[in-house]
Design goal:
The chain is 37% helix and 15% strand. It is of the alpha/beta class. Strand 2, helix 3 and strand 3 form a beta-alpha-beta unit.
């Protein structure tokens, strides 16, 4: 603010984008008002439209699927695999073959790095390439995570990030599209700034969007990037405390890293075996709430959402079981070990009751 650059456009936007490119090893970044905006413009660039189908994992926030509807396409919800709770490559293969056999065009695949854990990109990228389908990575929750040593956000034809208030780094609200495709980046930048032509007067050849991130918010985001490693390390430490406090309990498990990557532990998620601990996730949530401790259910699967009642889905039962048995625990970087152990004790008492 001391610099005087309170106007929407300024040097902090380019600096934030450049720093993110260096961090992820990609060539281009476009700072936007949200991760949802980034997905919307990526889908638009790849020509996704009316009558098309887009593969979306059923376990994710609704904002992964909403932009599919913005462009007039149909989200097709595919279940997740047991290990990472991300898009199941085998089910995705079946869905694509089935849809193509029925004459439907699958115009994009959007894997999600759920709760900061990377999806199985080798399998998904090979599948996308074989069918000529763009792969757009929803890495909104995964900044600071990695897949086989590559940063989350550097995979696929493009990726989207979120800087919402609850993310690893935050601009209060904001997002970014990252890619090594120069044409994609230039088109997204153009659309996101109201599709204004480079003329002295305001002239428009296309419909544009007010999707750019402001200079002030970009400065806020850039100031946190140098601390990303520290913030991720603290969240991973918090998750390790939960594992220490809960994994000895029969039928209770704290999600760990997957063989193919390292999570940023954005949220720590515990699961409770439904046979040993019936309705435990909800009982624990209410018990914590009584102590003014917030926890949340795992994302309600999108195929179960009323707004998507008519959307096609390919299911294995993993998503519905995860929704019934999973609980997102307090995961902020300011938690102390004492606080985490106190939460673990409350959970143990609840399960024993």
């Amino acid at each position: 603010m001391k610099s005087g650059w309170i106007a929407p456009v300024g040097p902090s936007i380019q600096a934030f984008e450049s720093d993110m490119c260096a961090l992820l090893g990609v060539r281009h970044a476009v700072a936007l008002s949200s991760g949802t905006a980034a997905l919307h413009l990526a889908l638009k660039f790849f020509g996704v439209g009316q009558g098309d189908c887009v593969i979306v994992p059923t376990v994710t926030f609704g904002a992964t699927a909403f932009p599919v509807s913005y462009v007039g396409a149909t989200p097709v919800f595919v279940d997740v695999e047991e290990t990472s709770w991300n898009l199941d490559p085998d089910l995705t293969t079946s869905a694509i073959k089935d849809l193509e056999a029925s004459g439907r065009r699958v115009a994009a695949i959007i894997p999600v790095d759920l709760y900061g854990t990377p999806a199985q990109y080798t399998e998904l990228q090979a599948l996308a390439l074989a069918h000529g389908i763009p792969l757009i990575s929803d890495a909104a929750e995964a900044l600071g995570a990695s897949y086989e040593g590559r940063p989350a956000g550097s995979l696929g034809d493009a990726a989207v990030l979120s800087f919402n208030g609850n993310k690893i780094i935050t601009t209060s609200g904001g997002g970014m599209l990252v890619t090594s495709n120069q044409t994609l980046a230039e088109k997204v930048r153009y659309w996101s700034t109201q599709a204004r032509e480079p003329l002295p007067w305001y002239e428009h050849l296309d419909i544009g969007y007010n999707y750019r991130l402001s200079n002030l918010l970009a400065a806020l985001g850039q100031s946190q990037l140098s601390r990303l490693g520290e913030l991720v390390a603290k969240r991973r430490l918090v998750r390790s405390w939960y594992a220490e406090g809960l994994n000895h309990l029969a039928g209770v498990s704290v999600q760990a890293d997957v063989p193919w990557g390292e999570s940023n532990a954005w949220l720590t998620v515990a699961t409770f075996d439904g046979d040993l601990h019936p309705n435990a996730a909800e009982r624990v949530r209410l018990a914590l709430e009584e102590q003014n401790i917030e926890s949340r259910p795992v994302w309600k699967p999108l195929h179960m959402q009323p707004v998507f009642t008519d959307a096609p889905s390919y299911l294995s039962g993993v998503a519905e079981r995860l929704f019934a048995e999973g609980l997102c625990l307090p995961s902020g970087p300011h938690l102390t070990q004492e606080q985490v152990m106190s939460i673990c004790e409350l959970i143990e008492e609840c399960l024993a009751a």
